Amino acid sequence: MPGLSDDAVLQELYRTFQETRAKIVERLRAHGRPLSEDYRFSEGARTDVTLSEAFGDRQDLLVIHNMGKGCRYCTLWADGINGLLPHLESRTSVVLVSPNDPQTQQEFAASRGWKLRMLCDASGAFTNDLHFAVEEDGKRFVMPGVSAFHRADDGSITHVASDFFGPGDTYMPAFPLFELLKDGAATWQPQYDYHPPVSIDLPHHTS
What we know:
Elements: H1 6-29, E1 33-34, E2 40-43, E3 46-50, H2 51-54, E4 60-65, H3 72-89, E5 93-98, H4 102-112, E6 117-120, H5 125-129, E7 133-136, E8 139-142, E9 145-151, E10 157-164, H6 174-179
Parallel strand pairs: 4-5, 5-6
Antiparallel strand pairs: 1-10, 2-3, 4-9, 7-8, 9-10
């Protein structure tokens, strides 16, 4: 942008970024549709928790699609969302859906300190229909992301929008913060625990 000061260039780039993000959201919302099925999930001993029940007393719902405890990246996103949970829940209901069984979900949530409501998509129907699962070489792979829903006064539910999670996206602030560092994220990858194991050198005794 010749002839513009650094500040003016930055302001123009910010404006372009905001306009682009608005267009992305508009495009994501364009794929929304009314739901004809009230999907069922497992929670604890229950196997009949419905999507409509997940709304609680709210008209809006965010469903976090999670690959389960075996994915460090999914854990990173869930950690971040858990930290934002009080703010998010002041506006909308929030649940996390993964293929892990309820006991595994609860044990892993407790180990992470999550307050997120966890639902198991045991049949996979919900995840499949929302296009967060793919089949490759005869194997099923679940993908991380988020879906937004709205419940009208008559109880009908609309899928408003969905988006996928991935390194560098706008849903995980760690990545744009790392970008400000000299070498960016460098070789960093999320881990379950960043504390190295403690090693103790014991004295050797000779007889």
